[in-house]
Design goal:
alpha/beta, 5-stranded parallel beta sheet, two-stranded antiparallel ribbon, 7 strands, globular
């Protein structure tokens, strides 16, 4: 990913929630800027004071909502009103249609907040708890078969590590990286 190196832009504060896809993207983003990630519940408030850019990578919950939206709302004044650039990266198993995305974001943030946030959407990890009975059974069967397989590919190892089908793609961070670097 030579084209995506950090350059002279200060490293963003990278936050994530418990979603496995969100953690993976947050890790890749931190690598790009030679920084670290924090769970949004464990972030050091001092980091937010000096941050120029804050990126929250959060999973879309199966029943609706975003895992870390409460952090943004609870810290709105310390973030956006204090001049920080804030991006919310929604990670889900499949892309959300425009109407569904608008409904989701409108239920999570006020119109004023939406005006000041930069939103991104990335594909994540499909875990059995996000699926119906038949699909859940299929994923669990596939994972059980992989556990018995002696020579696994890196993708198969990732599936076992994450407990589901990994749809993450590091290259898809490109638009977010350009935004952080103020190239877009």
């Amino acid at each position: 990913m030579d084209e995506m190196t950090s350059g002279s832009v200060p490293a963003p504060v990278v936050l994530h929630d418990d979603d496995p896809g969100a953690r993976r993207y947050a890790g890749w983003l931190a690598e790009e800027f030679d920084t670290r990630t924090s769970h949004h519940d464990a972030v050091d408030p001092g980091e937010l004071v000096v941050a120029g850019t804050v990126v929250l990578v959060t999973g879309m919950r199966p029943g609706g909502g975003l895992g870390g939206s409460g952090f943004i709302k609870d810290n709105w004044e310390a973030l956006v009103e204090a001049g920080r650039r804030v991006a919310v990266v929604m990670v889900g198993p499949t892309p959300v249609t425009d109407d569904a995305r608008i409904d989701l974001m409108s239920s999570e943030f006020s119109a004023d907040q939406l005006r000041d946030l930069k939103l991104f959407q990335l594909r994540g990890v499909v875990t059995p708890d996000q699926l119906g009975f038949r699909q859940r059974l299929g994923v669990r069967t596939a994972l059980a078969a992989l556990r018995r397989k002696p020579d696994r590919t890196p993708e198969e190892e990732s599936m076992l590590e994450l407990g589901g089908l990994d749809l993450t793609d590091r290259v898809s961070l490109g638009p977010l990286l350009r935004w952080i670097r103020r190239e877009a």
